[in-house]
Amino acid sequence: MDRTQLLLGLAVALFSLGLLGVIVRRNVLVMLMCMELMLNGVILSLVTFAQQTATTVGAVLVFLIFVVATAEIALAIPIVLLLVRDKRTLDLDAYSDLKG
Amino acid sequence: MIETLLQNLETLLLLLFGVCALVAAALMIVLHQPMRVALALISTMVFLGGIYGLLGVHFIAAFQVLIYVGAVMVFMVYVIMLLEVREAEGRRYSGLLLPGLAGFVLLVGAIGISIWRSLPTQHETVGSTGYGISAFSISFLNDYWLHFELTSVLLLAAVAAALAVIRISRRADNKRRHG
Amino acid sequence: MLTLIVLLPLLGFLLNGVLATQLGGNRVGKSFVTLVGCGLPILSFLLVVKAFFELRAGGYAPLIETAYRWALIGRSNFEVAFYFDRLSAVMALIVTGVGSVIHVYSVGYMAHDKSFGRFFAYLNLFLFFMLLLVLGRSMLVMFVGWEGVGLASYLLIGFWFEDLANARAGKKAFVVNRIGDAGFLLGMFVLYQAFGTLNMDSINSAFGIGAAKVVPASLVGMLLFIGACGKSAQIPLHVWLPDAMAGPTPVSALIHAATMVTAGIYLVARMSGMYLHAPEASAVIAVVGVATAFFAATIAIVQTDIKKVLAYSTVSQLGLMFLALGVGAYGVAIFHVVTHAFFKACLFLGAGSVIHALGGEQDIRRMGGLRKRIPVTFWTFAIATAAIAGIPPLAGFFSKDEILWFAFASTRGGSPWLWAVAALTALMTAFYMFRLLWLTFLGRSRMDAKVEAHVHESPVSMTGVLMLLALLSAVGGFFALPHFLEPQLPLPQVHEALHHLEKPLLVLSIVIAFAGLAAAAYVFGSGTTRAEGLQRRFAGLHRWLSGKYFIDELYERCIGRPLVWISDFVFLRLGDRVLLDGTLHSLAAIGRHGAGLLGRLQTGSLHLYAWFVLAGIVGALLWSWRHA
After folding, report:
1. Do C606 and A99 touch (CB under 8 A)?
2. With DSSP H G I counted as helix, E B as strand and the rest as coil, what are the percentages for chain B, rounded to 5?
3. Interface touch C613/A19, C-beta < 8 Å
4. Are C325 and C282 in contact (CB under 8 A)?
5. Would you list the domain boundaries of chain B?
6. How far apart are CA C206 and CA C199, in angstroms?
7. CB neighbours of A48 closer than 8 A, spacing ≥ 6?
8. Which C residues 548-607 touch A at CB under 8 Å?
């Protein structure tokens, strides 16, 4: 098993674990963190593939993902804060106002 | 034996860091308290940074630790500290634990098989090309300047959204105080 | 010019219909309506007379005028064309002539009616369609006129539609007519398929040169006769005519005595070229005709409404006309049409005068002693009654005698049985007509006191017309119409062996007429006591006859009620509610339940949504392997 396959396997595992975490964990903040885990898995796979060409495309994409992840977390947290202030709980099952 | 160890040092370290990252990620799913989950995520990210360093892209490793751990995760930890004092317990898993696990296995299998089938035969170029930050910056600001500008637009949008959130929270505060 | 003859009454309809009714806001007064409504038909009549002289000048070669090409379908050219030959000339003269005088009569009769303008509009409309019918060259134009007179009849029978019974009578007339029209249409279809044209002159000449071998003439004859039965009130489609008396009396005179009901006779006479080759159909026509004549005469004997007596009398006389057609004496039938138009119109209008004088009374049991009070009406009615009874030398005698002679001796189906039944009918005709005369005018008065006080003679517009028609009834028989029509409608051959019986049968006809007169005088001469005695003795028969043989009830039971049942159960409950509404409701229910099912997917739980994302990714990946 060479290094590419190893790294790609790791990336897939990280991504899948992140998605699993979004599905199974109840706490809103833990779900947010699992989404960050998914992004990390993607970055790892990008870095792995970026090495295979001579251009810097992969690195640019990685950088863009950093920017997006930062902006996203900067806004997601306040939104969660506001929601929590309203519902007074961090349990996601309480946030089913969009039912039906 | 030390020679083989030193020859394959990179691969071994890669393996070590990879396993540690995986274990930390798995811990995220299992741990009860959000603060501990945050710490597990931080350790995953640090190990990943180590992997990037081993692969030769040091600037990306630096970005990972600086931006991801240093800004994002710190913010996260602050929020957990803010919000978590009241709720220590609470159930850990949602109702979809078993379907989730089944889906997880299927997903890993499906993606794994898809990637396995589509990998090209020679792939020993990992870690061979290491480029430094200067090459990256020149290319970023010359060839990919549009993407650069677009990120600034994205950040502007984030600033505007943050202002809106402030206003909403102020209104909600007023309503709760006088409503 | 022929087109103008047809269009003038239409113009009258449009003018009166728009300006003189509520539609146009009642803009014009009665004088305008009278001028347009009577003037245009009279103008039409004058044009017909002019056309007649033109025809004569041209050696009686038919005048053909094409007005308009209606449609060109394949190789068939459907035109609106008018055809004027001897037969059309006679019919058109009667239609416009008698029609015009009845219009003049209506001025006086309907003077106090609030829908004066509407009445004249409808009358003119009727005249337009009737002219289309008699002047049309193609069966298609004739059919338009056929339907149109049915429409006008419906509108006029139900003229006072606020009374529901009148509206129902109009509806009945129209529906029964339509049943007959099915036969007419089928006949037209067969003819069109055989000849590729519906022009009646072409069809007649085609039959003349031997088309009968390939076209089933009897079938077509029967089908067309079904149509004629509907329009001319023969059994079994006669039920509408007595009910049609609900309309104003001029309507009964014009439509249900003189012109519309003779449309069936005209149809058969016009298609004589075909009927000459359809012996089976002719036999059926003769039998049905004479049966109807007998049947209606028996009912007329016991009727107590003055107009109903005349209605059944009309049915009976039409039966005699069909008898003449059935034995091949087409010209004689037309002759009887003409004389019947004269005396029946006079009778109906006279009845209208009586009703007008008595302020609306129509029951003859409450009349009597009117001879001195309304003399003009009495004398004209008496002349017309004598004409219909067959007293020589009045018009009815000539035409009826010819019918009886040909019924007896024609080589095309004449037989002693037909003659016997027809003679019996003639006897009954004389009897019930004189009964009517006696009970209405003679004897002691049985009127209501209030009614009696107001008895007055009708205005000149009405009595003048009565006198004209009575004169025509008297002298009309001397126009030798069958011989005039002979070049076109040849009289049938008579059996050589029976030739010598012509004079004796003539004498017998006269005897029959006077016998009827005598019997009526005996029974009704001194009031109704003898009549009541007879009625008591034959109570069962009387009940049967005054119930009109209960045919309406039979139709209601056998046809009406099953149809209503089918409409209700099969079409409404099963077809409409279960099938159609059920289908629509089921489709809606499918939509609703499907939406309910799909709605259950949106639980509001983000975990479930994320799981769907995962499932989607797995599914997409698996699907991408199908070519692997």
Report:
1. no
2. 80, 0, 20
3. yes
4. yes
5. 1-85, 139-179
6. 11
7. A4, A7, A8, A11, B55, B126
8. 599, 602-607
- Beta strand C63-73 with C76-84: parallel, antiparallel or unpaired? antiparallel
Rounded to whole angstroms, the Cα distance separating C229 from C267 reads: 11
Q: Report the alpha-carbon distance of residue A2 to residue A6 in Å, rounded.
A: 6
Per CATH, is B1-85 categorized as 1.20.1440.170? no
Which residues 92-121 of B are in CB contact (within 8 Å) with C? 94-96, 99-100, 103-104, 106-107, 110-111, 113-114, 117
Q: In this complex, do A82 and B168 lie within 8 Å of one another by their Cβ atoms?
A: yes
Closest in B94, B99, B110 to C621, CB measured: B110
Which chains touch B (3+ CB pairs under 8 A)? A, C
Alpha helices for A25-95 (secondary structure H): 28-50, 57-87
pLDDT one-digit tens code per residue, C590-604:
999 999 888 888 888
Of the residues B96, B111, B118, B119, the best mutation for testing chain C's interface (the one with the most C CB atoms within 10 Å of its CB) is B96
Cβ of residue C621 closer than 8 Å to a chain A Cβ:
no
What burial class does residue C62 get, using C-beta atoms within 10 Å of its C-beta: 0-12 exposed, 13-18 middle, 19+ buried?
middle
Q: Which residue has the tokens 């189906």?
A: C413
For residue B5, the distance in angstroms to the closest alpha carbon of chain A comes to 16
Which residue's entry shows tokens 């396993």?
Answer: B19
Contact C440, C306 (CB under 8 A): yes
pLDDT < 50 stretches in chain A: none
From residue A95, give the alpha-carbon distance in Å to each of A83, A90, B83: 8, 9, 17
CB contact under 8 A, B103 and C614: yes
Å between B71 CA and nearest CA of chain A: 8
Give B85-93's long-range contacts (Cβ < 8 A, gap of 24+).
B87/A89, B87/A90, B88/B33, B89/B32, B90/A26, B90/A27, B90/A89, B90/A90, B90/A91, B91/A26, B91/A91, B92/A25, B92/A26, B92/B32, B93/A24, B93/A25, B93/A26
C607/B103 touch (CB, cutoff 8 Å), yes or no: no
What is the structure's pLDDT at C408?
87
Contact between A12 and B112 using a beta-carbon 8 Å cutoff: yes
Residue ranges in B31-144 assigned as alpha helix (H)? 34-55, 58-63, 74-84, 97-118, 133-142
**Rounded to whole angstroms, how far apart are CA atoms B80 and B34?**
7
- Any B CB within 8 A of A25 CB: yes
Contact pairs from chain A to chain C, CB under 8 Å:
29
Which of C605, C618, C622, C625 is most worth mutating to test chain B (most B CB atoms within 10 A of its CB)?
A: C618
User: Do residue B111 and residue C621 have CB atoms under 8 angstroms apart?
Assistant: yes
Mean pLDDT (whole number) for C414-434: 90
Residue C92 pLDDT exceeds 70: yes
CB C364 within 8 A of CB C421: no
Flag whether the ipTM exceeds 0.90: yes
Omega before residue C393 within 30° of 0, cis: yes
Cα–Cα dist C570/C564, whole Å:
10
* C69 beta partners: C79
> B92, B2, B8, B76: which is closest to B42 by C-alpha?
B76
Taking alpha carbons only, the member of C292, C298, C334 closest to residue C315 is C292
Q: Which of residues 24-53 of A touch C (CB under 8 A)?
A: 24, 31
Determine, for residues C613 and A99 on separate chains, whether the beta-carbon distance falls below 8 Å. Answer: no
Q: Which amino acid is at C55?
A: L
Q: Please give the pLDDT value at position A19.
A: 95
pLDDT per position as a tens digit, C351-371: 999 988 888 888 888 887 888
Residue C294 contacts residue C234 (beta carbons within 8 Å): no
Domains of chain A: 3-93 (1.10.287.3510)
Q: What is the distance between the alpha carbons of residues C267 and C278, in angstroms, rounded to a whole number?
A: 15
